[in-house]
Amino acid sequence: MSQFLADIRDTLERLDAAAALDIFIIAAVIYALLMALRGTTAMTLLRGGVVVVCLLVLLGQVLDLSVVNFILRNSLPGLVVGVIVIFQPEIRRALERAGRTTLRSWLSNNEHAPETEAIATAVVELARRRHGAIIVIERTTGLEEVIETGIKLDAEISPQLLEGIFFPNSPLHDKAVVVRGNRVLAACCTLPLAESAGAARLGTRHRAGLGITERTDAVAVVVSEETGGISVASDGRLIRLRDDARVRPTLEALITGSQPLRRVS
Fold first, then answer.
1. pLDDT, position 89
2. What's the pLDDT tens digit per position in 46-92?
3. Which CATH class is domain 110-264?
4. Confidence of residue 257 (pLDDT cuts 50, 70, 90)
5. Angstrom distances, CA of residue 7 to CA of 10, 20, 57, 218
6. How far is Cα 39 from Cα 237, in angstroms, rounded to an integer?
7. What pTM was computed for the model?
8. Residue 223 in 3-state DSSP?
9. pLDDT: which is higher, 65 or 230
């Protein structure tokens, strides 16, 4: 124990400003990667890989397995390449998000104002006509797995586009639309159904809208085809908005994260 404490003391004595900056940069990169993987199946793969590596290190040290220890000592370059290959979609998405980030987005809380207005306008009109719809708004958790199940559009968002997608009998009206920023990324996307208590009494459209918010931090807006009612789901909660005028402020509060669902309903 005394030798261990001495090693720690020696390490701290050698720690200077450059070393501290080096540690900070590596920690920031790892944190950004974990945030990009949060809520995706890639995080499960990462956890599994960490468990396997830790188990091999433990067995190699305890049982003095020379071959295992040799492989672990010389496999770092291969692990780096493997991580890049396996998590390429998540790394690319993180870089794209960093490229879209501007100083204005850090200083202003109105970053989502144009798309929020377009979604609110479309939802109110869809509800008036009783056209069923599910609009999923991506936040920090990537929705690439959901997007892959649908038809990619990558079109600038507008009320007319959303209303056209969900027009009855149109080729894309079924299932969900995914929105990222001011872009409609995909339509006809399949969402996971909610598994929480009480979800079984909901219709399929509402269960799908609730299900995606149970697994990610996305916000889902659901328009009922039968009643024309508007519901909003976030953090595994689903509420029905009694007043059309509440659609926009509710979405603004949820997308920016300024208020939880129960407070804006």
1. 67
2. 777 888 888 888 888 888 888 888 887 887 777 778 777 777 766 66
3. alpha beta
4. low
5. 5, 18, 21, 46
6. 17
7. 0.60
8. strand
9. 230
Distance CA 206, CA 199 (A): 9
pLDDT at 47: 77
**What is the C-alpha to C-alpha distance for residues 145 and 46, in angstroms, rounded to an integer?**
16
CA–CA distance, 141 with 35 (Å, rounded to integer)? 8
Question: Cβ-count burial of 237 within 10 angstroms (0-12 exposed, 13-18 middle, 19+ buried)?
Answer: middle
CB atoms within 10 A of CB 247: 21
For 43, 44, 79, 241, the CA distances from 40, given in Å and listed in that order, are 6, 7, 20, 29
Q: Domain residues of the chain, as ranges?
A: 2-101, 110-264
Find out whether 208 and 134 touch, Cβ atoms under 8 Å.
Answer: yes
DSSP string, 144-192: HHHHTTSEEEEEE--HHHHHHHTSTT-TT-SSEEEEETTEEEEEEE--P
Q: Enter the tokens of residue 15.
A: 């720690």
Our CA angle for 88, 182, 36, nearest 5°, is 25
- Cα 68 from Cα 60, distance rounded (Å): 6
Q: What's phi and psi for 197, nearest 5 deg?
A: -60, 135
Nearest to 221 by CA among 239, 196, 197, 242: 239
User: For 128, which DSSP code?
Assistant: H
Query: What's the longest Cα–Cα distance across the chain?
Result: 76
Question: Are the C-beta atoms of residues 247 and 227 closer than 8 Å to each other?
Answer: no
Who wins on pLDDT, 11 or 185? 185
**117: which 2 tokens?**
């207005």
